[in-house]
Specification:
Blueprint: H1 3-45, H2 54-57, E1 83-88, H3 94-102, E2 113-118, H4 122-135, E3 138-144, H5 150-164, E4 170-175, E5 179-180, H6 182-190, E6 199-204, E7 232-241, H7 242-252, H8 261-273, E8 278-280, E9 284-285, H9 294-298, E10 302-303, H10 308-318, H11 332-338
Parallel strand pairs: 1-2, 1-4, 2-3, 6-8, 9-10
Antiparallel strand pairs: 4-7, 5-10, 6-7
Helix pairs in contact: 3-10, 5-7, 5-8, 7-8
Subcellular location: Golgi apparatus membrane
Membrane topology: Single-pass type II membrane protein
EC number: 2.4.1.-
C-alpha cells in the first residue's frame, strides 16, 4: 500500500472516530439532561408535602370541593347487593366522561361517579363545575390532578365510597379509558358470598418495579426499595368488597405513600398488611385487540386502552343484545384459548361464570 493511500485511510478513520466520539458524548449529555428533567418533572408533579395519606384525605373532615348527592339506591336499603363504580378521570377529559355516560353507565345502577382533582386552568375547572351540576356524578377533591398523584385520587375514592354508599357489596375502581360491562360485573359479584370476600381483578404476581425514569410506571428507590412488588391487582379496574374499604383506607394511613396506586392499595395494604385475598378473574382484560371475538368481548367484565370512538362502536355493536353468545355457540374459555389470551386468564383458580 502506498504511503499516500495509507495516509488517506488513517485520516478517514481518525475523522470517523472523532465524529463518533462527538456524537456519543453529545447523546450522553442529552440523555443525562433529559433524565434530569424527567426526574425533576416527576418530583414537581407530586403535590406531596408528606407521605402520610392522612394528611391529604383528612378522614374526619369533609374535603370534596364538589360533592355529588347520594343516589336513591344508597338511601333505601337496596345497596346490600349493589356495586358502586368509581371512575378516575382528569378535569380535561369531558369527552371520555360523556362517552361513558352514553355507553356502559346506562347499565349501571347507580350511575358511576367520576373522581378527579384540580388543575390551574380556571376555565376548565369552571366547565367541570357546570358539568357536575348537570349530571351530579363528579367528585372533585383538593389535590393537584397528575398521574403521579393517582394514589391520592384513589384514596379519595375510598373515602367517598364511605360517605356515598358504605353498605354496597362491592366498589369498583376503573379508569376513564376502560369499558365496563356492569351485567358481567354484577354476575361475578353475585357468586361471592360470606365474610372475607376477595378483591377481584387481573392479578400480577410479584413483578419487578420499573426503575427506568422514562417509564410511565417509574418508581424511585426512595419510594420503594424492595426488588419485587407483592402480588397486586392491575389498576385499570378492580373490585373491592364494601366491607373492606374502611379497613384498607385506615391501614393505608399507617404506610408511606408510593405513586403506584394499585400496588399500594391492593398489594401492600390489602394483601401484605391485611392478609386479604386477591382473586384473579379472566374476565378482566387490561387490553383490547380487534382479534378478540365479539362474544369474548361481550363476556368481559372490563376492557382497557379504548379510544372514545372504539368504546362507542363496541358498545353499539356488541352490547345491544343482538349477539347470540350462548355456551353452545362459543364458550368463553375456548374463545380465549383460540385467540391466544395469555395463560394467567386461564388459571384454574380464576373466578368465572361458567
Amino acid at each position: 500500500m502506498s504511503p499516500k493511500r495509507a495516509s488517506l485511510i488513517v485520516g478517514f478513520v481518525s475523522v470517523t472516530l472523532v465524529v463518533y466520539v462527538y456524537l456519543f458524548i453529545t447523546w450522553q449529555l442529552q440523555y443525562v439532561e433529559l433524565t434530569r428533567k424527567k426526574r425533576q418533572d416527576f418530583y414537581n408533579l407530586m403535590s406531596w408535602q408528606s407521605r402520610n395519606l392522612t394528611d391529604f384525605i383528612q378522614p374526619d373532615h369533609r374535603t370534596c370541593l364538589i360533592c355529588p348527592k347520594v343516589p336513591d339506591v344508597c338511601r333505601d336499603g337496596r345497596e346490600a347487593n349493589t356495586t358502586i363504580f368509581f371512575v378516575t378521570t382528569s378535569p380535561t377529559n369531558r369527552e371520555k366522561r360523556d362517552v361513558i355516560r352514553s355507553t356502559w353507565a346506562q347499565k349501571a345502577n347507580p350511575k358511576p361517579f367520576f373522581v378527579t382533582g384540580h388543575i390551574p386552568d380556571s376555565k376548565t375547572m369552571n366547565l367541570l363545575e357546570e358539568e357536575a351540576r348537570l349530571y351530579n356524578d363528579i367528585v372533585v377533591e383538593d389535590f393537584v390532578d397528575t398521574y403521579v398523584n393517582l394514589t391520592l385520587k384513589t384514596g379519595f375514592m375510598f373515602k367517598n365510597f364511605l360517605s356515598i354508599c358504605p353498605k354496597a357489596k362491592y366498589m369498583m375502581k376503573c379508569d376513564d379509558d376502560v369499558m365496563v360491562n356492569p351485567n358481567v360485573v354484577e354476575a361475578l359479584v353475585a357468586k361471592v358470598a360470606g365474610p372475607n370476600k376477595p378483591l377481584i381483578g387481573r392479578l400480577f404476581v410479584s413483578p419487578e418495579p420499573f426503575r427506568d425514569i422514562h417509564s410511565k410506571y417509574y418508581i424511585p428507590y426512595w419510594l420503594y426499595d424492595k426488588p419485587l412488588f407483592p402480588p397486586y391487582l392491575s389498576g385499570p379496574g378492580y373490585l373491592v368488597p364494601g366491607e373492606s374499604v374502611q379497613k384498607i383506607l385506615e391501614e393505608s394511613f399507617k404506610e408511606p405513600l408510593i405513586n403506584l396506586e394499585d400496588v399500594f392499595f391492593t398489594g401492600i395494604i390489602a394483601m401484605e398488611k391485611l392478609n386479604m385475598t386477591l382473586q384473579n378473574s379472566k374476565r378482566f382484560f387490561t387490553y383490547y385487540s380487534m382479534q378478540m371475538g365479539k362474544c369474548a368481548v361481550q363476556k368481559a367484565a372490563l376492557l382497557h386502552h379504548l379510544e372514545d370512538k372504539e368504546m362507542l362502536d363496541l358498545w353499539n355493536e356488541i352490547w345491544n343484545g343482538k349477539l347470540n353468545c350462548s355456551s353452545k355457540h362459543q364458550g368463553f374459555r375456548s374463545v380465549l384459548s383460540g385467540i391466544g389470551i395469555p395463560p394467567f386468564f386461564l388459571r384454574k383458580n380464576s373466578l368465572d361464570l361458567e
